[in-house]
Every structure is written in structure tokens, then in C-alpha cells.
Write a structure and sequence with these properties.
Pfam families: Glyco_hydro_20, Glycohydro_20b2. It is found in: Lysosome. This protein is α/β, with parallel strands linked by helices. The chain is built from 17 helices and 18 strands. Helix 4 packs parallel to helix 6. Bound molecules: 2-acetamido-2-deoxy-beta-D-glucopyranose (3 copies).
Length: 529
């Protein structure tokens, strides 16, 4: 075997000297060598190991094999492997995949194990994982190990990788209320998330401006609350498609229905849900947050979340709870009377807590867990001990790292987003700022640090729609993806710059219109596509 392999090495080593391995995100442990093999689209196959728990028919892996065949060789249909004639010894003709436990029809969860081991050696290309989710991460890594000569020949170096994520929750938030994002935008984003090993799609479905979620219990919500009920809604079929598309890529869908604030678009569809604001002694004709003093509000929420909890199969729902504006509640005499009756004085945080606690009880009773924005914690709402608190405010009431310390010292699990608002743009390489954040860089015990389950990059939609979503997301979100996957010690900016620039070119090759990091060019001319 040394014969032809060595020949290739000698012939091409000079041509490709200095080409560093360019994985994104960087694996936990890797050994590479200058020894390399060729891969031919005509003969290469993904195969299940005979003793793998997953076998042909496994939806997650069957489809992943198809996808990665496309990623590596293009969508062209290649003839099956050549049956006659010996392959040159230096050619790798298959990647053998062994998954230890079945679970092809399951959903990924916060507890999913994503570890994998990938070996490219003289003997074989071999991918070992406890779960199909780990196998997906390994397939992505395999696809990034393959490199191309200018003539288009494919190579892969002798490599050994052992990999696993640093954090189990690595999310990306999209906001489909400020601007509607057509279904293909969401599905394409899920593809690129998988390239980055993100595993949670936080779907901020609805907000003040529009209500695109089509509810079967309350069809008036999207009929009256969406931008256009004919074209700007997500039907039950769309939602199913997003969930399955995400599942096949090992991505959870965390649906957010934010209340009691951020709900103006709910108003037209459910009469009496929102608080009428007063101007003096008269209703002003405008509306504020959800009305927390009416039984009908909670009856509605019970029915609505009963539906939502069956539509979205993930154990967790995101219940929002951020930025409740008290002005309207303060103006309303019925609310003032209720406050008096309850002995809340003029502390409207207590009224907010009253609402949120009742809602959390409703959602708990449906058998769901929940994630909430940090205000719920800041305002001392009594929540279940297994609640996950998402930190989004950079400085108030305290610096976000201090907030992480407070939340975890109270025993709650935390998610970090504050420094990762990708919708905020500045001149220059802002990815470096995202990259240098460490979610555990707060003062706290090991037990506290263990309560940080990860974080999310957020792309709020005020200035983003389908025209600019992709270049604004990629490769900037990749900085967050690597921070959440790779080892704590992987922080070298030059090393990251080289790999991220390369990854950006690879994204172009894969048809993703990712923006440039800085001055330069991609070796292959994909920028024109
Ligand atoms: C792969 O092999 C080539 C040719 O020997 C070498 O130039 C390159 O640095 C190797 N890449 C890695 C990641 O080891
Ligand atoms: C995954 O890797 C982590 C880190 O090495 C380890 O603690 C954990 O036990 C591994 N899980 C499995 C199922 O191999
Ligand atoms: C609201 O529900 C509570 C508890 O079930 C009940 O005591 C109260 O009378 C109800 N209020 C109205 C206005 O129906």
C-alpha cells in the first residue's frame, strides 16, 4: 500500500504544502498526518457496519448519507461503485459507520450524546458513535476533512479524531415576527446550522408586529395577526416540515411564544386578551400586555398551550417573559383594583409574577419543561427548579457574567445570549468579539459552572428578512458555534481566522452566500455562484 500512497504524497506534497487542516468547529482531539488518500465520486460509498445498531432504513443516517454525497460530489448522479478492477490502494472507497444504540426515529433532546470517533487510516475510514446524533456530527467532520486539488481530485489525509461538544445546548434564534421568513429560508438555515454543529433552532415565532403561526384551535390569531394570512403564515404542515428537517440534522426545535409582553399581534384574534390602556378615565383605544386579571386569559392560555405542546414535540417550550411594559397596566382602573385586592401595592413586578406563575403552572401541567428570558428570574417569579433561564441583557441589572453567576448560584440552569446578538452589526471583524466570550468566565463554583448548558446566537428581525439573512448569519454565527462546541482552550484568533476564512469559502462552495471575513479571495471561484 505504501507504493501508490507514497507516490501521491511525493507528487503532490509540494503542491499543497502548508495547506492546514481547516475544520470548523475545531474537534476536541485530532491527529493528522501528511499521508493522504484519494476519494472518487464513482466508487465512494457510505456504509453501515454489519454490527451497527442502525442499519439501512435508518431515516436519519440514510438521508445524511445522501446529503453528504451531495456535499462532497455535487448533486450529479454518479454511477454505482465500479465492480471490476482493483481500486488503487491509496483510494478510500467507503466510510463505515457504526452506531452503538438504535434511535433512528427518535428526536434529539438536551440529553442526546453527540460524541464520535473518526479514523481515516490505511485500513479504512471508520466512524463510531454511541448515537445517530454523534454520527451526524462525525459525517460533517468527515466532509470537512476532504480537500480538492485545482483539477478537482478529492483527497483525505490520514486522521484520527475524538470529538464531543463542550455544551449540550448550542442554539440559533430566528425571529419570524418582525419579518416573515419563508419556509426555504428556515430550512436552508437548518442546513448551515448542521455544518456548524449547532443543535437547537430557537424559533421566536410571534411577537408584536405579526403572528404567523397558524393555530388550529384559534385560527383567528394568524388570520388577523399575520402580515398576510394567504402568504405570511406557517401552516401545520410547514411546522411539521421544519421539525422533521431539523430532526434529520440532529437539531431540536425550541418554539417560543413570548407573553405577557410582545403580544400586540395576538390582540386582533382573541378579543379581551390584551389589557385596554387608559388615558385618564377613558380607554385610549390602545392595548398593552396580556390582561393578567381575567380568568378568560388563563382559559385561553390553557387551550393555546395545550395545542402548542402537542405540535412541538421537544420537552422544552420557550415562554418568553421579557420586557413587560407596565405603563398600560398602571393606567387601567380594573388592574389597579385587582392590585389592591391582592395586596401588591404599586409593585407591578408582583402582578407580572402572578401572571407568569399561573402560566408556568399551566405549561408544567402539560408535561413540558420551559425556558424563559432572564427578567422572570430578575423579578423573582417563583419557577420550577428545572427551569432554564436565558441571559440576554448585557449590562442590566448587572453585567451578563454576573447574571450567570446569580442564576446558577440560585441553582437554575443558564443559557447565554447577551454577547451574541448577531443582528447588531458594526464595521470590522465583529466575529472576534463573539469568539472571545467564554460562558463560564464568571466567579462561581464548579457546581455553578455545570449548570451552564450552553448558549444561543440571536438574529432578531427588525432589519433582517430573507434578502440579507444568510450573509448576516454566516460565517458570524460560526464564532458562537465553535465557542459552544470546542474545548475551552481553543481561543487563538489567528488560528480561528484561517479556519473560519476557509470554512466561509467551503460554505460558498456548498451554495451558502456567506459574507467575507476580511480582504482576500477564495481559491476556487465560488463567489460568482
Ligand atoms: C495533508 O497532506 C498534505 C500532503 O502531504 C499536507 O501538505 C497537508 O499539510 C496535510 N494536511 C494535514 C491536515 O495534515
Ligand atoms: C462523551 O464525551 C465526554 C467527554 O469526554 C464524556 O464525559 C462522556 O462520557 C462521553 N459520553 C459517551 C456516551 O461516550
Ligand atoms: C375566576 O376564577 C376564580 C378561581 O376559579 C374564581 O374564584 C373567581 O370567581 C373567577 N372570577 C370570575 C370573574 O369569574
Amino acid at each position: 500500500m505504501a507504493g501508490s500512497g507514497l507516490w501521491f504524497s511525493l507528487l503532490l506534497a509540494a503542491a499543497f504544502a502548508g495547506r492546514a487542516v481547516a475544520l470548523w468547529p475545531w474537534p476536541q482531539s485530532i491527529r493528522t498526518s501528511n499521508w493522504f488518500y484519494t476519494i472518487s465520486p464513482h466508487s465512494f460509498q457510505f456504509k453501515y457496519h454489519a454490527s451497527s445498531a442502525a442499519q439501512p432504513g435508518c431515516s436519519v443516517l440514510d438521508e445524511a448519507f445522501q446529503r453528504y454525497r451531495g456535499v462532497l460530489f455535487g448533486s450529479e448522479v454518479w454511477p454505482g461503485p465500479a465492480r471490476t478492477g482493483k481500486q488503487p490502494m491509496s483510494e478510500k472507497t467507503s466510510l463505515i459507520v457504526l452506531v452503538v444504540t438504535p434511535g433512528c426515529e427518535e428526536l434529539p433532546s438536551l440529553e442526546s450524546v453527540e460524541n464520535y470517533t473518526l479514523t481515516v487510516s490505511d485500513e479504512q475510514c471508520f466512524l463510531l458513535s454511541a448515537t445517530v446524533w454523534g454520527a451526524l456530527r462525525g459525517l460533517e467532520t468527515f466532509s470537512q476533512l476532504v480537500w480538492r486539488s485545482p483539477e478537482g481530485t478529492l483527497f483525505i489525509n490520514k486522521t484520527e479524531i475524538e470529538d464531543f461538544p463542550r455544551f449540550p445546548h448550542r442554539g440559533l434564534l430566528l425571529d419570524t415576527s418582525r419579518h416573515y421568513l419563508p419556509l426555504p429560508s428556515i430550512l436552508d438555515t437548518l442546513d448551515v446550522m448542521a455544518y456548524n454543529k449547532f443543535n437547537v433552532f430557537h424559533w421566536h415565532l410571534v411577537d408584536d408586529p405579526s403572528f404567523p403561526y397558524e393555530s388550529f384551535s384559534f385560527p383567528e390569531l394568524s388570520r388577523k395577526g399575520s402580515y398576510d394570512p394567504a402568504t405570511h403564515i406557517y401552516t401545520a404542515q410547514d411546522v411539521k416540515e421544519v421539525i422533521e428537517y431539523a430532526r434529520l440534522r440532529g437539531i431540536r426545535v425550541l418554539a417560543e411564544f413570548d407573553t405577557p409582553g410582545h403580544t400586540l399581534s395576538w390582540g386582533p384574534g382573541v378579543s379581551g386578551l390584551l389589557t385596554p390602556c387608559y388615558s385618564g378615565s377613558q380607554p385610549s383605544g390602545t392595548f398593552g400586555p396580556v390582561n393578567p386579571i381575567l380568568n378568560s386569559t388563563y382559559e385561553f392560555m390553557s387551550s393555546f398551550f395545550l395545542e402548542v405542546s402537542s405540535v412541538f414535540p421537544d420537552f422544552y417550550l420557550h415562554l418568553g417573559g421579557d420586557e413587560v411594559d407596565f405603563t398600560c397596566w398602571k393606567s387601567n382602573p380594573d388592574i389597579q383594583a385587582f392590585m389592591k385586592k391582592k395586596g401588591f401595592g404599586d409593585d407591578f413586578k408582583q402582578l407580572e409574577s402572578y401572571y407568569i406563575q399561573t402560566l408556568l403552572n399551566i405549561v408544567s401541567a402539560l408535561g413540558k419543561g420551559y425556558v424563559v428570558w432572564q427578567e422572570v428570574f430578575d423579578n423573582k417569579v417563583k419557577v420550577r427548579p428545572d427551569t432554564i433561564i436565558q441571559v440576554w441583557r448585557e449590562e442590566l441589572p448587572v453585567n451578563y457574567l454576573k447574571e450567570m453567576a446569580l442564576i446558577t448560584s440560585a441553582g437554575f440552569r443558564a443559557l447565554l445570549s447577551a454577547p451574541w446578538y448577531l443582528n447588531r452589526i458594526t464595521y470590522g471583524q465583529d466575529w472576534k468579539v463573539y469568539y472571545l466570550v467564554d460562558p463560564l468566565e464568571f466567579e462561581g463554583s464548579a457546581e455553578q459552572k455545570a449548570l451552564v448548558i450552553g448558549g444561543e446566537a440571536c438574529m432578531w428581525g427588525e432589519y433582517v428578512d430573507t434578502t440579507n439573512l444568510v450573509p448576516r448569519l454566516w460565517p458570524r454565527a460560526g464564532a458562537v458555534a465553535e465557542r459552544l462546541w470546542s474545548n475551552k482552550g481553543v481561543t487563538d484568533l489567528d488560528f480561528a481566522f484561517k479556519r473560519l476564512s476557509h470554512f466561509r469559502c467551503e460554505l460558498l462552495r456548498r451554495g451558502v452566500q456567506a459574507q467575507p471575513l476580511s480582504v482576500g479571495y477564495c481559491e476556487q471561484e465560488f463567489e460568482q455562484t
